[in-house]
């Protein structure tokens, strides 16, 4: 039986998908402050319902390269797993360092698996020391192990760790120093101000986003040379970034130069309005400073556009329409994710009708197209900014009217990227948006296209469809890696899509191995 609720905008929606594991699969949150109790209950219910699927969902949440890569949410689930089944939690430890980051392992400190965590870290550290001495590659453990002192203050977790490892503080410092030198960690070069030692082509994706301003400031000539070299490189990079990282880099730079990008009908218009105001009545010195800032803005755009182009391409062979929600509730990460995803999908869409074109919607919907040679930041600049309510009905109405009036080819799929806080259906407030428009299309002898609801809300609060709504899929998150599962969907129902995704990414194989090793004490 459906458990109904209302969106913020009073539309009928669902409290649950009617399947606890599907609830977990379709939930995302990158909020650093997680609602632990809600997450615990969600994971507990999923584990009781089907532990194989729940553990696979846990690994999918963790996986940076092929899954959602949601750190805070994974940590919350992992703590819940430690409470509910410490044996499973122990066996998952090796997968944490493989699919995520070594520091996630430390979530086990202060719990019933603390001693096992120390043993696990010690075993890998000893292995890395041996590999270092044998001149073999080492793991990234040393990068994430805490230093004894941070900002001239003792790190008491590190002090305790050293004792558990049976080392002196001096021995521990030397080991970390040698292993980090072997790894050529960018943070160490920054701390030591050894910018000439940084190999920019090897800087990890997240570090590039985090430290790019340092690189521009401290090593401008070499860093600009790297950007030009990157343009010529055929190697794909930056696939581990979240889609909002690209738009956020650009929008943050607009804010730095004083542009309120919501103050115009487009960002381009907002920029023109803001710049003319910002340089008004400035002294010569202030104008020079402003000019330096604007040059840096230009350099940043060059970097962002180059990084965007270096991503791997996932091409859609179907007739796919992508729709981005730009309503007021989408501000921040949801908005940045939606427009970045819409651009990426439309650039890689082989459909003649929708290549280099997508729909944005808020109080109304607008079809937005761009030239295939336009840069990423230029495409963002000219997106019409409608930042009002969430009238998804305008999108369905447009699709139906275009089908009736223009005799367009049947759409295979529509990907709606939104926080799903839709407006209620006009004159039909007792029906969900999906159910209403499915019936409307049928009334006109048209089949509603397959709908992929991609939720990018900060915290998913409801679900537009349930497991019973065939012809739909539910996905959530901020990584384009999720697209790999969407490209060749055959069975369009929420449960089958979840199982196909988890199977393709080999998480069920990992769960099988976890269960095999339950009786073993070693990893």
UniProtKB/TrEMBL annotation:
Gene3D superfamilies given in the database record: von Willebrand factor, type A domain
DUF7788 domain sequence ranges:
320-505
Q: Which Pfam families match?
A: DUF2828, DUF7788
Reading the lineage from the top rank, the first entry is: Bacteria
Which InterPro entries does the record match to this protein? DUF2828 (IPR058580), DUF7788 (IPR056690), UCP015417_vWA (IPR011205), vWFA_dom_sf (IPR036465)
Domain named DUF2828 is located at 169-234
Q: Which PANTHER family match?
A: OS06G0652100 PROTEIN, TROVE DOMAIN-CONTAINING PROTEIN
Name recorded for this polypeptide: DUF2828 domain-containing protein
């Amino acid at each position: 039986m459906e458990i109904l609720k209302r969106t913020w905008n009073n539309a009928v929606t669902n409290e649950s998908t009617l399947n606890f594991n599907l609830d977990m699969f379709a939930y995302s949150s990158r909020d650093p402050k997680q609602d632990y109790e809600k997450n615990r209950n969600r994971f507990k219910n999923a584990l009781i319902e089907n532990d194989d699927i729940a553990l696979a969902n846990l690994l999918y949440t963790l996986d940076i390269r092929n899954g959602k890569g949601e750190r805070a949410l994974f940590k919350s689930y992992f703590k819940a797993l430690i409470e509910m089944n410490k044996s499973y939690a122990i066996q998952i430890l090796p997968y944490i360092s493989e699919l995520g980051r070594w520091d996630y392992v430390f979530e086990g400190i202060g719990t019933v698996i603390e001693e096992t965590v120390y043993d696990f870290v010690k075993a890998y550290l000893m292995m890395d020391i041996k590999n270092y001495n044998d001149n073999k590659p080492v793991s990234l453990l040393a990068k994430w192990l805490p230093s004894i002192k941070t900002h001239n203050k003792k790190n008491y977790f590190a002090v305790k760790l050293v004792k558990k490892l049976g080392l002196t503080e001096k021995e521990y410092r030397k080991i970390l120093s040698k292993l980090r030198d072997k790894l050529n960690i960018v943070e160490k070069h920054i701390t030591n101000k050894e910018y000439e030692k940084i190999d920019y082509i090897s800087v990890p994706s997240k570090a590039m986003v985090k430290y790019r301003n340092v690189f521009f400031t401290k090593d401008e000539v070499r860093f600009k040379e790297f950007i030009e070299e990157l343009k010529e490189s055929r190697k794909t990079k930056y696939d581990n970034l979240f889609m909002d990282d690209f738009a956020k880099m650009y929008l943050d730079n607009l804010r730095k130069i004083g542009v309120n990008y919501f103050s115009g009908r487009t960002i381009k218009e907002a920029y023109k309005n803001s710049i003319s105001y910002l340089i008004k009545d400035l002294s010569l010195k202030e104008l020079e400073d402003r000019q330096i800032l604007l040059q840096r803005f230009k350099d940043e755009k060059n970097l962002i556009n180059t990084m965007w182009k270096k991503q791997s391409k996932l091409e859609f062979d179907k007739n796919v329409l992508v729709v981005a929600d730009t309503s007021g509730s989408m501000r921040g990460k949801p908005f940045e994710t939606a427009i970045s995803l819409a651009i990426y999908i439309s650039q890689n869409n082989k459909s003649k009708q929708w290549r280099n074109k997508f729909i944005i919607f808020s109080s109304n919907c607008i079809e937005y197209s761009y030239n295939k040679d336009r840069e990423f930041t230029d495409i963002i600049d000219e997106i019409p900014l409608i930042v009002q309510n969430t009238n998804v009905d305008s999108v369905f109405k447009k699709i139906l009217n275009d089908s009736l009036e223009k005799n367009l080819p049947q759409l295979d799929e529509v990907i709606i990227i939104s926080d799903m806080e839709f407006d209620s259906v006009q004159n039909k407030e007792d029906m969900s948006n999906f159910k209403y428009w499915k019936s409307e299309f049928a009334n006109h002898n048209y089949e509603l296209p397959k709908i992929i609801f991609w939720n990018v809300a900060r915290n998913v609060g409801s679900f537009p469809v349930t497991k019973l709504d065939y012809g739909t899929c539910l996905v959530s998150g901020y990584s384009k890696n999720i697209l790999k599962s969407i490209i060749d969907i055959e069975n369009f129902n929420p449960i089958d899509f979840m199982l196909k995704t988890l199977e393709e990414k080999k998480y069920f194989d990992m769960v099988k191995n976890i269960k095999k090793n339950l009786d073993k004490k070693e990893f």
